[in-house]
Amino acid sequence: MSDALISARDVWKVYGPNPIGAISGDPTPEALQASGHIAAVRDVSFDIPRGEMLVVMGLSGSGKSTLVRCLSRLVEITAGSVTVDGADIGALSDRELIALRREKMGMVFQNFALLPNRTVLENVAFPLEMRGQDMTSRRARAAEMVRLVGLDEREDYFPRELSGGQQQRVGIARSLAIEPDIWFLDEPFSALDPLIRRDMQDEFLRLQAMLGKPIVFITHDFDEALRLADRIAIMKDGAVEQIDTPDRIVLHPATSYIGRFTEDIDKARVVRAGSLARPLNGTVPQGSPVPADATLRDLARRLAEDPSEYLSVADGSGALIGVLARAAALDLLFGPAPALAEAAE
Amino acid sequence: MSLLTAEAPARTVAFPFAGGRIGVGIAVLVIIAEMLGVLPGWLMRPPDWLLLPLADWLNAGFAFARDNLGLIHLTRWVADGVQWLLDVAANLLYGKRRWPNIGPVPWTMSAATGACLGWWLGGWRLAALAGGTFVWIAVMGQWKWAMEPLSVIIVAAPLAVALGRTLGIWAWRSTRVECVLDPLLNLAQSMPHFAYMIPVVVFIGVGPKAGAIVTIIFAVPPMIRMTLLGLRKVPPEVVEAGRMAGATEWQLLRKVRLPTARTELLVGVNQVIMQSLAMVVLASFIGMPSPLMPEQIG
Q1: For residue A175, is it within any domain?
Q2: What pLDDT score does A34 carry?
Q3: Which residues neighbour A296 within 8 Å (Cβ) at sequence distance 6 or greater?
């Protein structure tokens, strides 16, 4: 096997009278619908390596929530296979599945899904209680998690006494209590208002930088996806339309559907110098190189003021990796649509 | 055009089906025939030969279930258990001479216990209400009359809650059980209070235990309904959170589903207590100690 932590192969989830029969011969969505079936997940395959944050993006009803539930077997898949850490989770017995979830998986839910009869601390300690940890050690661990998300003043509050943002912090602390290897987040910030959402994204990035866990993050918000993702999978009608890095999705949308998503995006904030760089081909550009991971927005002043036609681009170690055509970059920063098409080639 | 469309539905309402005119015609004929006195009597009221001997059938059915099927042994066994609990409660609350023979608990202590429970459950306001009510009853000189039905409720209500919750969970887990229970609950909830007593008298006899059992049976339906409703209303996300925490089915039920459904369960408990209060007074007709029939107390 590869070093993929989660790998999905030809995963289908079909609802209807005869799901298994309905998917023989790779039917179109229209054909499935005609036979009274709905495909929530259509023939999805991908690998998630250790340490990667994959953001699954799609409008409501595109199957993204179902997909993440297939990965944790909250939903039984119709066909295909899901492998987690080398084990086919479809083949696990109930007992093994429970053990897998107790040791390796954490999940955060859109509507927090806290237990109303338990305090903040008891909610966070719940997964530890399920795996039979003793009271003292699980309270200590839960208190540590509550501190991590900044709720240490409110350990003894009940969920109903907290704001939405605070409740989701409890949800995050709970999902991290068992030190999961895999972290699933199902639209964790969608139920929060925009200002708090921004705070929570920052908080989430801080935790992620600290913990470095592989993450499957579901969202319907493209800006959120661009902000957080290592890679983005865009879903439509249950199928993954494109799975790629944010700047490649913005620069090279695979379908017109994805093109529509990226239309209104400020590309200069997403596209990094490295992804626009072309091979040197013997040219020796003048001036100091720009870092490959800088966005065009970061480089805006340099791009506007530097007179040279090409800027050199260097990776993290300082080695030159290519040149950036200044005109193409400026087109992305300010430019009209026709110039964009040229830059994308 | 608009006139036509407006007219069409009006015609349909006046004569909803083709037989309308014929029906009206027959009705007019029947009325005329009745006025002339030419209709046979059995059309007006059912003759004796048409009446089913339902009472005899029911009696035979009861007798068969009780004696031939041996159901009486089961009901006796249950009733004896209830009787034992009733005796303990009666001894503690108003000093009936039964095991454990330590009652009656002094009225001051009962009032203090009520106040403590109130404080524990809802703070000083509820404590004042509970303690104050006990004191009020004592001052009114109604202590014994109040303790007698209380001794029954204190046994019947928890049993009804436990039974209703168990049946509710069972119905929630199994569609088949729900299909059987649902019409029975509809029947039970539409029956008059007194109708509960007859089968109980047949199978249990009369006396306090029969009164307690009729109270339990009467109070169970709302608890079953509320348990079922509460378990259905648990958000799927909360259940998924429980599953992702690695809960087994039993842990899910006990630590996720039931606590999340507690609002409905508490409404169920509230309904059980209300129903018990309503029934415990009527149950004096079959030998329950009660303020309605104080002379029966022995």
Answers
A1: no
A2: 84
A3: A267, A268, A269, A271, A272, A273, A276, A303, A329, A332, A333
Whether residue A82 is contained in a domain is answered as no
**Residue of B239, B243, B244 to mutate, testing the A interface (most A Cβ within 10 Å of its Cβ):** B244
Output the six-digit token pair for A26: 């790779």
A174/B237 Cβ within 8 A: no
How many structural domains are present in chain A?
Answer: 1
Reply yes or no on whether the pLDDT at A92 is more than 60: yes
Say yes or no to pLDDT of A12 above 50.
Answer: yes
pLDDT tens digits for range B67-114: 888 888 888 899 999 999 999 999 999 888 888 888 788 999 999 999
Cβ-nearest to B240 among A109, A127, A174: A109
Of B237, B248, B251, the CB nearest to A113: B237
Confirm or reject contact between B246 and chain A (CB < 8 A).
Answer: yes
Domains delineated in chain B = 55-105+142-296 (1.10.3720.10), 106-140 (no CATH)
Q: Is A101 on the interface with B (CB under 8 A)?
A: yes
In CATH, what number is assigned to the domain containing residue A323? 3.90.1280.20
| Domain span at A301 | 267-344
Residues 169..188 of A with a Cβ closer than 8 Å to B: which? 171, 174-175, 184
| A chain contacts of residue B250, beta-carbon cutoff 8 Å | none
Q: Which residues contact A30 (CB under 8 A, 6 or more apart)?
A: none
Tell me whether residue A232 is in a domain: no
Q: Look at residue A177 and give its three-state secondary structure.
A: coil
Average pLDDT over residues B114-123: 94
* B56 interfaces chain A, CB cutoff of 8 Å: no
Q: Which residues of B touch A107 (CB under 8 A)?
A: 240-241, 244
DSSP state letter for A289: P
Q: What residues does A79 pair with on adjacent strands?
A: A12
Say if B135 is an interface residue toward chain A (CB within 8 Å): no
pLDDT in tens, A119-158: 999 999 999 999 999 999 999 999 999 998 889 899 999 9
pTM confidence score: 0.82
Buried b (16+ CB within 10 A) or exposed e, B16-38: eeeeeeeeeeeeeeeeeeeeeee
Which of A157, A132, A128 is closest to A140 using CA atoms?
A128
Taking residues A37-55, what's their average pLDDT? 90
Helix or strand or coil: residue A269?
Answer: helix
Establish if A282 belongs to a structural domain. Answer: yes
